[in-house]
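User: quick one, sequence for these tokens?
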């Protein structure tokens, strides 16, 4: 009975036809190819928006053409040889095929031709490499506190676990000697975090460094990536053809929250950039003391819980408080509400409706280690913390801090809010 059942099942089984196999293979291949396509991807290397990014794109196109031609020729030769030299059956009377031990012409050819190809690729790559490493910023007129200043656009980019800081010096000759120590940088005219603002159409020199481990700064639409190394200030250059928002990501593994270390570059026209400078140069002041006002209570809570790491210029005094100790270097919050992202660029400061994002900001203050893994709590003695610590704040204190943070800076325009929104 069992044997007859097995035979019946086997009879019902139908082998998969060759055409169906080919169809399934084609579907799988198409799925694999389309899985890598995203027209609205934040990190897009195929839509360059600057001269440097176009140089990289051109190099990639040329190498892909060369590799594609080689691939077609090699695959064609493999198919041809597989058919021509396939195993044949002999009945003993056929002449045995000629045995060949070598072919000098072929051997010389497949040595010289690949060498020439590699030299061509090396030359193209070297030319692009030197072009990308050139940094030359032209003078750009800005107004700083009412005075016209000729600024050679330079921005100090500081990577740290797990966020990016951007420092603007408008009246100083910024170089490695002036900056000296990434862990204790000179006071800057503007310090912001997560979002770097640049003027459109201007070459901007970056000095990229790190306060802790090696990071890598990458805005793919504007240039390639540049490593941020502790103790070094690596020059790099970016520019943007058009106003817009360009997304970036740390590309050097740097610990638990490496994948959550993001940044944006916002390119503005001359007028908007000057307005941004004017806004960012304004310090904050302490709100009037009022125990019934959540903003006033939030300012008091900020001084008690946050000011050992964070700075609000004009409120909690000396700028050196925030940056001197690498383990406790934290974002400058002077104009926190003017930024559209926080927590290393992974959370929106405002909701889709343009409202203050109380929920996410509250959760960040309540349990930062849940939102973004870190090394800030429960460490052995002597171990330096990394990331935002859980301060064990009460719900009322959290609510007051959220209210206070909303007063720090001007709300961005609806266009900026929409363009910079992260998922």
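Assistant:
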């Amino acid at each position: 009975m069992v044997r007859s059942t097995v035979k019946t099942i086997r009879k019902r089984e139908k082998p998969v036809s060759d055409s169906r196999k080919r169809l399934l293979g084609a579907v799988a291949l198409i799925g694999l190819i389309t899985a890598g396509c995203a027209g609205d991807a934040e990190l897009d290397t195929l839509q360059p928006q600057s001269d440097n990014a176009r140089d990289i794109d051109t190099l990639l196109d040329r190498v892909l053409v060369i590799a594609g031609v080689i691939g077609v020729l090699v695959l064609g030769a493999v198919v041809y040889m597989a058919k021509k030299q396939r195993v044949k059956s002999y009945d003993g009377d056929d002449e045995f095929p000629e045995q060949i031990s070598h072919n000098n012409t072929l051997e010389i050819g497949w040595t010289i031709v690949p060498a020439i190809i590699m030299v061509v690729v090396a030359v193209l790559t070297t030319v692009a490499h030197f072009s990308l490493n050139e940094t030359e910023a032209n003078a750009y007129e800005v107004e700083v506190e009412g005075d016209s200043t000729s600024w050679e656009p330079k921005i100090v980019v500081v990577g740290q676990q797990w966020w990016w800081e951007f420092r603007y010096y408008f009246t100083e000759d910024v170089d490695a000697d002036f900056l000296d120590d990434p862990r204790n940088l000179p006071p800057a005219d503007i310090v912001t975090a997560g979002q770097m603002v640049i003027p459109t159409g201007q070459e901007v020199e970056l000095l990229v460094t790190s306060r802790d481990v090696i990071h890598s700064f990458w805005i793919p639409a504007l240039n390639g990536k540049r490593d941020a190394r502790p103790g070094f200030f690596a020059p790099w250059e970016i520019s943007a053809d058009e106003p817009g928002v360009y997304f970036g990501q740390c590309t050097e593994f740097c610990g638990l929250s490496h994948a959550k270390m993001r940044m944006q570059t916002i390119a503005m026209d001359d007028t908007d950039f000057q307005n941004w400078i004017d806004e960012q140069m304004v310090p904050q002041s302490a709100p009037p003391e009022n125990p019934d006002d959540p903003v006033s209570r939030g300012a008091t809570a900020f001084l008690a819980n946050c000011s050992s790491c964070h700075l609000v210029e004009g409120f909690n005094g000396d700028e050196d408080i925030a940056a001197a100790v690498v383990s406790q270097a934290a974002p400058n919050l002077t104009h926190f509400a003017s930024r559209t992202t926080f927590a290393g660029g992974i959370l929106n400061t405002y909701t889709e409706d343009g409202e203050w994002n109380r929920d996410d900001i509250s959760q960040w203050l309540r349990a930062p280690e849940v939102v973004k893994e870190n090394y800030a709590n429960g460490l052995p003695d002597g171990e330096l913390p990394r990331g935002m610590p859980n301060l064990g704040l009460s719900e009322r204190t959290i609510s007051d801090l959220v209210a206070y943070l909303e007063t720090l800076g001007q709300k961005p325009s609806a266009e900026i809010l929409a363009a910079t929104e992260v998922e």
